[in-house]
Write a structure and sequence with these properties.
The chain is an all-alpha fold. Helix content is 84%, strand content 0%. The protein has 13 helices and no strands. The protein has helices at residues 2-18, 21-43, 51-71, 82-108, 111-118, 120-133, 139-160, 166-200, 204-226, 231-237, 243-270, 273-294, 301-335. Helix 3 (51-71) packs antiparallel against helix 9. It starts with a helix and ends with a helix. The model has no long low-confidence stretch (mean pLDDT 81).
Length: 336
């Protein structure tokens, strides 16, 4: 009797987990925190300068992971098509620009400051949608944007309070340069990809497959052409005392990018897009706090205040999007 019941009970347990909103939310939060921490661990290593190699390894791990999941029947995505690849190739170049500038910003900035300044991308995307897709910025959304800018200003003061030498100051401003570049690169990637998705009708895993597959040759060419592959530099980037840890962190960050995509789709499926956007806003707080816990990020009044103001800004934006979505759903019925 017990043997006969075991498969049924394990199947019902798997079903209950698969359809659990709270578990999907926790999984999404943990996967995004894991990716941020592992990326920071690698790029903040002593003299790390092989960012293109790091990103190539992450894309390769991502392709291997989703290929394995597809072969097991867990996920599905369309097969490779040359014509679609040609049309999608500009998106791959934009992706490389986005992830490279992101890794450079994370290299020079603490996780809390990086997370807070990343909010500014939302502003660029919102106004980009107004220009390209006829979107609308409500008063509440505008309020959230002002809070995002305010939180970034506070974060700047918090970071400046921790500056002790001229080298620290140079690294800080270099980090801000890469962060600003990343905000524009991220906004361009999201907006142009959205246009392309409408034309190709790509699903989530189709997008992930083409993005990572097409970015691998670009990243490999860039690392071999522009990065130093001398034995001395490789020894600096992968020192003997923590070589295994750095390589494992690279692999985990690649796999966690798959986890974020899968958990995002899972969270939307078992909850709602509104809940998902709220979780995205709430998730910025634990990501920022993880920087304080796992790395030597500046802990002072300004830095802590910036985290909470940024958290409130994200929450206000999520509520503004929720209201806007409800209004757009009720408009057609009121016009009848």
């Amino acid at each position: 009797m017990e043997k006969g019941n075991t498969p049924a009970s394990s199947h019902s347990l798997a079903n209950s987990i698969s359809n659990s909103g709270p578990i999907s939310i926790v999984a999404y939060c943990l996967s995004s925190i894991l990716m941020t921490i592992t990326n920071k661990y690698v790029v903040s290593g002593f003299n790390f300068n092989l960012n293109f190699l790091l990103l190539a390894i992450q894309s390769i791990v991502c392709i291997i992971t989703i290929g394995t999941l597809k072969s097991l029947g867990i996920i599905n995505y369309r097969p490779f098509n040359k014509d679609e690849a040609k049309k999608w190739s500009p998106i791959a170049f934009l992706l490389v620009g986005m992830i490279y500038t992101s890794s450079k910003a994370l290299q020079f900035l603490s996780i809390p400051v990086y997370t807070i300044f990343k909010n500014l991308t939302i502003i660029l995307i919102a106004y980009g949608e107004v220009i390209w897709f006829g979107g609308k910025v409500t008063t509440m959304a505008l309020s959230s944007f002002l809070l995002m800018v305010f939180s970034s200003v506070i974060a700047y003061y918090g970071d400046n309070a921790d500056v002790k030498t001229a080298d620290d100051e140079f690294s800080l401003y270099l980090g801000y340069f890469w962060m600003l570049t990343n905000c524009f690169a991220s906004a361009a990637f999201v907006l142009i990809m959205r246009k392309r998705i409408k034309l190709t009708n790509f699903k989530d895993f189709d997008t992930m497959y083409y993005n990572n597959l097409l970015s691998i040759p670009i990243l490999l060419i860039l690392t071999f052409v522009f990065e130093n592959w001398s034995p001395e530099n490789l020894e600096k980037n992968f020192p003997a005392d923590n070589r295994a840890a750095v390589i494992i962190a690279m692999i985990i960050s690649g796999a966690s990018s798959v986890g974020i995509s899968y958990c995002s789709a899972w969270c939307v499926r078992v909850t709602s897009s509104t809940t998902y956007s709220m979780v995205g806003a709430l998730n910025k707080l634990p990501i920022a706090l993880s920087g304080l816990v796992f790395f030597a990020a500046a802990v002072n009044f300004w830095s802590v205040s910036s985290i909470f103001v940024g958290f409130i800004a994200g929450l206000v934006y999520a509520v503004a999007k929720q209201k806007q979505q409800k209004e757009s759903q009720t408009l057609p019925t009121t016009n009848k």
